[in-house]
Amino acid sequence: MRYKITGRQLDVGEALQTHVKSELGETVEKYAQRPTDATVNFSKDAHEFICEATVHLSTGLTATAKGHATEVYAAFESCREKMDKQLRRHKRRLKDHHKERSQPVEFDHAGMYVLAAEDDESETEGSGLAPMIVAEMETKVPTLSVGEAVMQMELSGADLLVFRNEKHGGVNVVHRREDGNVGWIDPRNSK
Fold this sequence. Notes:
Helix content is 29%, strand content 38%. It is an alpha+beta fold. It folds into 2 domains: 2-97, Double Stranded RNA Binding Domain; 106-189, SHC Adaptor Protein, CATH 3.30.505. The strands form 2 sheets. It has a 5-stranded mixed sheet. Helix 1 runs parallel beside helix 2 (72-97). The longest helix has 26 residues, at 72-97.
């Protein structure tokens, strides 16, 4: 597994890097036999250290965790425990479904745009309904089953995931609802 361990306005020494590689490697290997790479970022916010970790699995799924503590090692341990919990749930779901993906997840490229927030005072007659684009980026849209999409959304800690449904090829969305349940939007079934 490849590691990228960085610190934002913080020096990450050899001892911490060695600790992260051994502990995170042990955690990931326990649940996912085929991790490809891991990115771990350390930062400091006032008196608190923050550790953010992202692990990419060869199946195309991504697990993300974040931990906070007053010491850098404790922040990493908090993050590692959350990652452990996510990977354990992921493995349990794979077992429960009695199905393991034999092919890697396919990704389509799509445009992603950041639109400027509307400001009531700056609204002019000429602007109409065309919002101002602040940034243009490229993102990837995975081809997954609905169950895998829900699992990916939970693993990444996101509230929303856009994916291409592998059954019919249409674009679908799964999202976390305010009541705690997961919503699934499939425009093809709107009849």
